[in-house]
Amino acid sequence: EMPNMALDGLFVALLLSFGTTVALDPIPRITWEPRDVHLVRFQEPGVSNYSALLLGSGDDTLYIGAREAIFAVNSLNIADKQHEVRWRVTEDKKAKCAEKGKSKETECLNYIRVLQFLNSTVLYVCGTNAFQPTCDHLLLKTFELVGKNEDGKGRCPFDPAQSYTSVMVDGELYSGTSYNFLGSEPIISRNSPQSPLRTEYAIPWLNEPSFVYADVIRKNPNGTDGEDDKIYFFFTEVSVEYEFFGKSMIPRIARVCKGDQGGLRTLQKKWTSFLKARLACSLLENNSLFNVINDVFILRAPDLKEPVFYAVFTPQWNNVGLSAVCAYNMSLVEDVFSKGKYMQSATVEQSHTKWVRYSGEVPKPRPGACINNEAKAANYSSSLNLPDKTLQFVKDHPLMDDSVVPISNRPRLIKRDVNYTQIVVDRIQALDKTVYDVMFISTDRGALHKAVSADSGMHIIEETQLFPGSEPVQTLLLSAEPVKAEPAQAQVLPGWGRGGAGRGWEGRGWALPSAMAVLQAASARPQEQPRGLLSRLGVGFSDGPQLNSAAAMLPERRSGGSSGTVNGGLVCPAPPSLPAIQEAH
Ligand SMILES: *[C@@H]1O[C@H](CO)[C@@H](O)[C@H](O)[C@H]1NC(C)=O
Ligand SMILES: *[C@@H]1O[C@H](CO)[C@@H](O)[C@H](O)[C@H]1NC(C)=O
Ligand SMILES: *[C@@H]1O[C@H](CO)[C@@H](O)[C@H](O)[C@H]1NC(C)=O
Ligand SMILES: *[C@@H]1O[C@H](CO)[C@@H](O)[C@H](O)[C@H]1NC(C)=O
Ligand SMILES: *[C@@H]1O[C@H](CO)[C@@H](O)[C@H](O)[C@H]1NC(C)=O
Ligand SMILES: *[C@@H]1O[C@H](CO)[C@@H](O)[C@H](O)[C@H]1NC(C)=O
Ligand SMILES: *[C@@H]1O[C@H](CO)[C@@H](O)[C@H](O)[C@H]1NC(C)=O
Description:
Helices cover about 10% and strands about 35% of the residues.
C-alpha cells in the first residue's frame, strides 16, 4: 500500500503549485440533511439488488432490474408500481451452481444485469442466472418474458459480483463483461447474428478490466470523410506500461467501429478496430494520481459542437478519500486514436516485458481505423479485405502511446474527504443567458453534490444528504424531460435560491428543473435487512425577482455550514459578491 504520508505530501505539493487554477476542495455553500429532502421510495418485499435502471423514452416509465425480478414504475412517482415480472432460477440450475461451490442463497440466483431497449416494444434483458448467464425478450405491452433462453455468455457476467456494461446500438448489443465461470476472461463483444465480434483474449487487449460505461457516438451526419459510428468503452484495468507498487491501475477509454466485420484470416470474428488509450486525470502531466474511473456521463447538447464527456475518478490508494472530475473533448479522443502513436512491447531481461512508444513504420491502411472513404478509395470496402499486415499490427498494438487529456489539461474539480461514485451533468441556461454545465455527483456515503463552473472556478453549491444511512449512491440517472411538480411537493425540496433558472421553470410558483436524478442505494451494512431503496430527487428552483443569476445561483455559505432550510427552504439571500474560493499558495 502506498503510505498515507506520501499521498498527503503529494497533495500538498499540488496545492502549492496549482492552487489558483483549479477548484481544489471547494466547500459546499449549503448542506441539506435527509429531513430536508423529500425522498420517494420504491421497495418490493423480498426483492433486493436493484442494479439495472432504464428510463423509458418520453413515457414517464422507469424500468428496474433487480434480483430475480423486473419492474416498471412511474418515473414521476417511483412508489407507483405499474408492472412486474419475476425471473427465477430453476431448482436444477441452482443445484448445479451450488455443486460448483457457489452460495445457493446469494450467488446462485438471477441478478438482472442487462436491461436495454431492443425496439419500442421489446426490452432485451440478461441475468446471471446461477452462473449460466441467459438473455430474454420482455414484451412491454404485456410485461411478459418470451422465454427465449438465449445463451448470455459474453453479454452478461456469470458472477453477480463482477463488473459489466452494455449498450444497444441499432438492435445489436455491445457488452463489456467476463466470458467464463471463473471471471478470468474479460471480453468486449458484439452480439449480432450477422457479425458477432469479440476482443482477442490477450493481456495487451484487456488486463483484468473493471467495466464502467459504454455508449455510442454517432458520426457527423454532414461529414464528408465517410466515418463510422463508434462505440466507446470506459474501464479501469491493470496497467502494462506503468509499474509502481505491484499492480498499478489505469483508467482507459477504448473504442470500436460499428461497421467492423472482423478480419478474414487474421482477427477472424475479432475486432479489427479495437484501440484503447489512457484517460489522464491528474494535475501533473504524467502522474497517475486519479487512476480509478468510477463513472462517465456523456453530455450532448444542441449548442455543443461535439459531445463532451465527464468522468469521476478516485486514486487507487484512497485512504484519504480524494476524488476528481475531469471533462474531455470527443474530438481530442478521436485524434488520439486516428493520429496518435502506438505502444509496443519489448522484452528486456529474459522474460520481463516493457511497453514503450512504437516509432517504426505504421502499415497502411492505418491499423485500428474505421473503414472510411479513404479506405474505400483504396479498395478496402470492408474490414474483411484489410491486409494481414494492418491486422497483425493492430492485434499486437491495441494500446496508444498518447493519452487522452482533459479539457484545459486539468481536473474540473478535486474534492477531499469524499469518494465520488456517479455523475450526471445538465446544461442549463440561466436568466442572463449564460450557459452552465451543472454537475450532480454522488458519493459512497449517500450524498449528492451539485457543482457549477463559474469564471472564478468550480463551486459546490449544494450538498444534499439523500440517504439517512449513508449508503453509497450506486446509480444516478438524468431524465431527458423537464419534470413538473406539484407546488406542495416542491416546497419541501431544497432550492437553489432565488432567481435560479432552468428549462423546467414554469411561470409562477414552483417547478422542478430538467435535472431529475433517480438514485439508488444498496444497504452498505450487511447486518441490515437488504432493502431496496430507490428514490427520486428533484432539485427546485424558485420564482422571484430576477437577480444576477450567477450570484443567485451561488448563495452565500451559511455560517457553520450547518443544514436546514434557508429562509424556509425557499429563498436565500444573494451575496453582494461571490466569495472567491482561494486555496493556500
Ligand atoms: C421488435 O423486435 C422484436 C424481436 O426482434 C420483433 O418481433 C418486433 O417485430 C419488433 N417490433 C418493432 C416495432 O420493430
Ligand atoms: C445484493 O445486495 C446485498 C444487500 O444490499 C449486498 O450485500 C450484496 O453485495 C448485493 N449483491 C450483489 C451481487 O450486488
Ligand atoms: C448538418 O447540416 C444541417 C443542414 O445544413 C444542419 O442543420 C445541422 O446542424 C448539421 N449537423 C451537424 C452535426 O453539423
Ligand atoms: C513524466 O514526465 C517527464 C517529463 O515530461 C518524463 O521525463 C518522464 O519519463 C515521465 N514519467 C512517466 C512515468 O511517464
Ligand atoms: C474541443 O477541441 C477542439 C480542438 O482543440 C476545439 O476546437 C473545441 O472548441 C473543443 N471543444 C470544447 C467543448 O472544448
Ligand atoms: C480498385 O478496384 C478496381 C476494380 O477491381 C480497380 O479498377 C482499381 O484500380 C482498384 N483501385 C486501387 C486503388 O487499387
Ligand atoms: C473512501 O474509500 C476508501 C477506500 O474504499 C475508504 O477507506 C475511505 O474511508 C472512504 N472515504 C470516504 C470519505 O468515504
